[in-house]
Amino acid sequence: MIDVEPSGPLQTQDIATDDDVVRVRQLVRAAAVSTKLTLVDQTKLVTAASELARNALVHGGGGMARVEVVTSGAGKPGVRIGFTDDGPGIADVDLALTDGWTSGDGLGLGLSGARRLVDEFELSSKPGRGTSVVVTKWSR
Ligand SMILES: Nc1ncnc2c1ncn2[C@@H]1O[C@H](COP(=O)(O)OP(=O)(O)OP(=O)(O)O)[C@@H](O)[C@H]1O
Ligand SMILES: [Mg+2]
Predict the structure, then answer these.
(1) What's the predicted TM-score (pTM) here?
(2) Tens-digit pLDDT profile for the chain (140 aa)?
(3) CA distances from 97 to 8, 93, 137 (A)
(4) Alpha carbons 95 and 100: distance in angstroms, whole number
(5) Near ion ligand 2, which residues have CB within 5 Å?
(6) Pocket residues: Cβ below 6 A from ligand 1
(7) Do the beta carbons of residue 50 and residue 25 sit within 8 Å?
């Protein structure tokens, strides 16, 4: 992962309800605007965040989002978002990231789609110990 410095306050949001997913979207949109991401990139990041927040809620039984404006080692601004939950975790991460794979009745496109919409994507999960996903989008 690229070395980064925080350049704004860390904003946190619990994810326990559908309304909380909307709040995450709003926090991410505001951070993306303040970072001067293009409108297209704002929308990509908000869409990715929405899917990851929904996964934390639906599959992880609720969790937390952390939204931060950061600066890369090269001085480029970006938005980094971390999602954590204490749910069952993901036994096979590669499988979970396969387009169309779902353990439930979803489309199985949330995780794989989110990965394509951001510049950096790190997923770590251990069965029984929850899931953490950190994504970053850089301004161009
Ligand atoms: N936070 C999480 N905790 C546990 N399992 C997860 C988590 N996020 C994703 N998964 C697993 O990975 C699978 C794929 O996730 P993905 O978001 O792509 O699909 P989905 O949530 O099933 O459907 P949708 O297309 O509606 O998002 C899920 O079905 C689930 O089994
Ligand atoms: Mg999903």
Answers:
(1) 0.96
(2) 556 888 888 999 999 999 999 999 999 999 999 999 999 999 999 999 999 999 999 999 999 999 999 999 999 999 999 999 999 999 999 999 999 999 999 999 999 999 999 999 999 998 899 999 999 999 98
(3) 31, 6, 19
(4) 10
(5) 55, 110
(6) 51, 55-56, 59-60, 85, 87-90, 96, 101-104, 106-112, 131
(7) yes
